[in-house]
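A note on notation is needed here, since sequence and fold are reported together in a single record. The reader may check this reading against the record printed directly beneath this paragraph.
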Amino acid sequence: MSLRYPLDAAQVVALFNRTFEATDNTVLQGGADEPYYVPGQPSCIYFRADYARSALHEVAHWCVAGARRRCFSDYGYWYSPDGRDAAHQAAFFAVEARPQAIEAAFCEACGVDFSPSVDNVGADIPAEQLSAFEMRIAGWSKVFRDRGLPSRAGRFLSGLERLRATPERLSAGAVQ
């Protein structure tokens, strides 16, 4: 029996593009300094450098964005850089639990470690606030286990599971 190594960013990109480029006119591309979504022909989800975790995080956001939101750069959301105050951090936590629960499922399927992202490097987040955020992620994870993932997230998760379970497809070149 062969070892099941974690999937890398190139494999995630190849799978995403094969799954969604024709049906949803959207591609995934690494190498960005910062993650960003750009609607277009095709729309493009950019993720940081060549980090599989960044790719999975950005795909999770795309999976929860509705058709209207996918018409706007970065889904029409504001971005607040590092150094957020407590109110802005609380607003971030309120909207991030759902996509991060999807990201956690993607990470598990890929064999990649998941940890919640507070997206505020260097911030002193109170332990009880972080714990509450982790509990919201766990709550959404339970909802998704019980009811299923949103449609696009379910399609992508199935593809990740198949890809990782098929040893001969583990090289990035084989999934192109």
Remarks:
- The chain has a mean pLDDT of 88.
- Strands lie at 26-32, 36-38, 43-48.
- The chain has one domain: 9-167.
